[in-house]
Amino acid sequence: MGKTKHHFVKRILHVIDSLHLGGAQEVLLNLATCGSSRFAHEVATMHGRGIYWDRLHDAGITVHSLSPHKYLPLYLATLPALVLSTKPDILHCHLIPSNIIAKPLGTLLGVPLIINHDHTNDPHRIENKLLLALDKSTNRFAHHIITVASACRDFLVKHESIHRGKITLIPNAIDLRRFSPGSSSLSESRTKLGLPQDVPVIAGVGRLNAQKNFALFLEIAAAVVTEIPEARFLLAGEGPEEPRLRAQAASLGIADRVLFAGYIPDTRIVYSAADILLMPSRFEGLPMTLLESMAMGLPIIASNLDGIAEVITDTYEGLLAEPGNAATFTSQVIRLLRDPDFAAQLAINARTKIESNHSVEIMTTAVESIYDKFLP
Length: 376
Description:
Blueprint: E1 10-16, H1 23-34, E2 39-45, H2 51-58, E3 62-65, H3 75-86, E4 90-94, H4 96-108, E5 113-118, H5 124-127, H6 129-139, E6 144-147, H7 150-160, E7 167-169, H8 186-193, E8 201-205, H9 214-227, E9 232-236, H10 242-251, E10 258-262, H11 268-273, E11 276-279, H12 288-295, E12 300-303, H13 306-311, E13 319-321, H14 326-338, H15 340-357, H16 360-374
């Protein structure tokens, strides 16, 4: 009997902008560590190392840094050298700068299959005409495109004239072996974080940048404490806006109510310690923080955006508010804190949704089916 084209292990080189904290990095980690043995994964970050360098390395994945700094474009030389030396069967590109640089190089160097993974519906692609033109032109080099939400797919169809048949929607997913209710107790988690045991805690998780809109998070916090003075707020993450956010908390008079916890490697402790996840983002694709908290059984209040609204049905798996609407977010936080039975039912429904549609096994199988379908 003849061998099929999938008999031998296929080599995949993932290229991503950075390995700092982010949802795309978590997706890459899941793809590289939870898939079948028919594929061997390596990862190249365009610059630096970052949090996910160690996670990948500890999981046995070979990781390459192409330049020490993003403003030192050594990757224009080191990426072609890496492709020539590793001879990947598949070049899997994540995030816009990596897409723009890696796809043309992969085509030039004859990589058999080039995949573009579109992780976010970033409005800057419309505002920045050059970025939009570059993304559109380099998407022509991809044999196929994966998007994490239908809004991301629709953006590519509408603004970049990509044929819908060239795009497959594969939502992000969670390793349910790691993220499950009861993985650690509320009491234990609050003790580790230095939080009081007997007060409501509202958490925000993510990079402290403009996209996540934690400035609005603090406005909501200030409004909530006027109604529920004992409430406490936890921000887990690091980023360029941290000094400004700390100053804002002080100016709002809530510095003693907000814990800036910094980067927390294992976010399960945050979800276990909190009563609510508050996500007032300006834009998103399908955020991993959302899926993780749903899997952990944590009630969610989030912006009514793109992939978020594709996963959460308002008042069933969580509560949605129009982006930037502080009054609605505030009233929703107060509602959940005063109606714990309703909050608990939202959490149960959310966990059921994740189990049915967003397990890592479902995602990796779907991505590997794309590999199989388009490999020469």
